[in-house]
Amino acid sequence: MFRLMLRRLISKVRKTFRFGGILLLSCLVLVIAIKQVQGKNLPGLTTASAQEQALEQLIGKPIAQQIETHVRALASKPHEAGTDANTKTAQYYAKKLREYGFDEVIFNRYEVLLPRPVKREVTLLQPESYNLKLIEPPIPSDPDSYNQALLPPFNPYAADGDVTAPVVYVNYGLSEDYAVLDSMGISVKGKIVIARYGRSWRGVKSRLAAQRGAVGCLLYSDPADDGYVKGKVIPEGKWRPEFGVQTGSVLDIPKYPGDPLTPMQPSKPGVDRLTQSSAVTLEKIPVLPISYGDALPILRNLDGEVVPKEWQGGLPITYRIGDNAAVVRMQLQSDWSVRPIVNVIGILRGRSEPEKIVMVGSHRDAWGFGANDPVAGESSLLESARTIGELAKQGHRPQRSIAIASWDAEEYGMIGSTEYGEEFQDALKGNVVVYLNREFYIAADFNASGVASLQPLLNQITKEVQMPDSDKSIFEAWRESQQNNTVTVNGMQEVRLDGLGAGSDYMVFMHHLGIPSLDFGFGGADDYGGYHSRYDSYWFFKNYGDPGIAYGERLTELVSLFLLRMADARVLPFDYASYSEAIDRYIDELSEVAQKHSVALDLDRIRAANIELRTTAQKLNAETAQIATMSDRSLERNREAISRLNNLLVAAESAFLDQNGLPRRPWYRHQIYAPGYDTGYNAEPLPGVREAIERKDTEETEQMTNVLVSALNRVCDTLQEAFAVGLEVNKAT
Ligand SMILES: [Zn+2]
Q1: For residue 614, what are the contacts with CB-CB under 8 A and spacing of at least 6?
Q2: Nearest-angstrom CA–CA distance, 535 and 539
Q3: Measured in angstroms, how far is the CA atom of residue 390 from the centroid of ligand 1?
Q4: How far is the CA of 512 from the centre of ligand 1 (A)?
Q5: Nearest CA-CA partner of 481 in 469, 495, 492
Q6: What is the assigned CATH class of domain 576-732?
Q7: Which of 55, 536, 660, 701 has the fewest CB atoms within 10 Å, i.e. is most exposed?
Q8: Is the peptide bond before 62 cis (omega within 30 degrees of 0)?
Q9: Phi, psi of 38 (to 5 degrees)
Q10: Prediction pTM value
Q11: For residue range 572-619, what is the model confidence (pLDDT) as tens digits?
């Protein structure tokens, strides 16, 4: 379908625009652009070309009122994946994209396993009796919090069960926490563990507990991490109140994201599905999220040893590990139905290379109203769609196509985007030149992660947009908050991009398809206590999320700038020398890991391959810099060669993939980045070799070293080919 659509797009565009038309249009754009730019005070912009001047118009265009209207509309009802309410939000999204001039809007549907809670009961039986509330009480200032359609707090994909056992406190439930328990001679076998949220993916917490023989798992928000220790709680402040609970998936995504029953396959009707018992990403034990109000009666009754100092949380008690004193019964049952989901994808056809696509996506499904997560994020993205659509109507239609995707069922485990990537992988590879992920945002620090080849571009465009509530650019504010994470390139300080791990819709693009990907925005889950809760409502957004909507406006500008820069770039701005610099650091880390585990590692081979890669990338950069200054006429003469060069720049990223994937998790094919197997969320660089070392498996270490070196060589060969094309172009002019 995707291919067909592309072919249709290409032929339509060919009919509409001839070369003369393009020239005429360019002149028009120039005139309009210069007229509109004159007299405007544009912060931080120094540009010359007509194209750049058109881009300047993006600044100051976003309208807070538009963003607020979307937030009000899209967060008016709870809209979890698979509900009618969420289908309605898809229609809203599609209608807006059409209104903004997107040429085609597609509904893309799947049928996926989406459990919902039926029974949730947790009782403290000993030494006192207490029935946990397990619900978030409404707050009078927020009328939405009384809504009866809200699902209660739960951890989707936790096992059904009825278990009774003593409770053990395991801090954050990380591998290193269990190492501490081991050193104290404490086992969780046959116990129910209680772990605090934070520092790892939920599904990893429950998996590590189950692996060690725990029979149940309670996850709670400690006030030290998300509550009154951080600041005033809802409704007086933005932090989590006593009975606030974080809902969230415990799908074991470091194994693979997406529908648990159809790994590697799109979950279309009729596709072969695994049985639930053979799906390795489904949790094996009951898991339930609770509030610190409900955790307190359990924690204060734990006996046994006092916890290590760092394990002490924010509740007014002395935390203990727990032995046999506090006994809890957990009863859990879900409705395990397969339900329909729908992604919406809008395409604004490119002027001269419509088959090449700059893609941006954000999810649409929420836990509850989701006014911040994801609605604020998707609303600012819709506003980018409007400003870009408006520029196109004025004559500045980008050279490449721009696709805006609204993903469904992200909250359950990146399901809509993963199924889409699995279905259309052949069409996406080579055609999508970049994937930008936009999650939710909240008024807080700027942050970004992604492929290091996009580090220079992102550093540059953040200089062109103001930080809200500040006289600094986003770049200056970002650099201040990332002081230990900068690198000096050609005398200029750049903030480094960390790799992408897990937790949002970039996963299939980055880890499975090797499409250059990145993710940026303001704030994250650790910045507010309404996250994944009934309190993430319009009322919250207006009071704490982004009251003046300045963050939403600046984000809109930055996203639009990024999309148009990528869509209009003569030579795609991928810098593989930056990539190589990042890999260099990962190699240093790898060397430390090898020393720590006393595993022999042929570092020299890896280093040599990376040096070769960098040398080639530097040569290539010199050629592409020259092409960037070329006259329009020479550019037109070399159009075919430059397009070949761009294809190679995109292909270099996918050359990092190994088709066999990582050992034990073949869905993950990228050899530079994967989510940490035992942490989730964070990226684990050079995952194949690193995991082999950590397992002290010398044979696998050698084998994965070969795989890594081959990947580096493949990338280098691709860049070498690109260099040859660049050289040819520059010689000809
Ligand atoms: Zn989200």
Answers
A1: 576, 577, 580, 581, 584
A2: 8
A3: 28
A4: 20
A5: 495
A6: mainly alpha
A7: 660
A8: no
A9: -55, 140
A10: 0.93
A11: 999 999 999 999 999 999 999 999 999 999 999 999 999 999 999 999
Q: Which residue has the tokens 């050609």?
A: 490
**The pLDDT value given to residue 213:** 98
Residue 361 Cα to ligand 1 midpoint, Å, equals: 11
Please count the CA atoms within 13 angstroms of the CA of 595 that sit on its side-chain side.
7
Tens of pLDDT, residues 465-477: 999 999 999 999 9
Å from CA of 139 to ligand 1 middle: 23
Distance 504 CA to ligand 1 centre (A): 7
366 CA from centroid of ligand 1 (Å): 7
Class of domain 49-113+339-520+537-568: alpha beta
Vertex 221: Cα angle to 216 and 224 (nearest 5):
130
**In the 8-state DSSP scheme, what is residue 675?**
E
Among 193, 231, 238, residue whose Cα is nearest residue 314:
231
Class of domain 116-336: alpha beta
Q: Measured between alpha carbons, how far is 398 from 376 in angstroms, rounded to an integer?
A: 26
Question: CB–CB of 582/496 below 8 Å?
Answer: yes
Instruction: Using the mean position of ligand 1's atoms as its centre, give its distance from the Cα of residue 405 in Å.
Output: 14
Q: How far apart are CA 30 and CA 71, in angstroms?
A: 35
672 phi and psi angles, rounded to 5 deg: -100, -40
Distance CA 532, CA 281 (A): 21
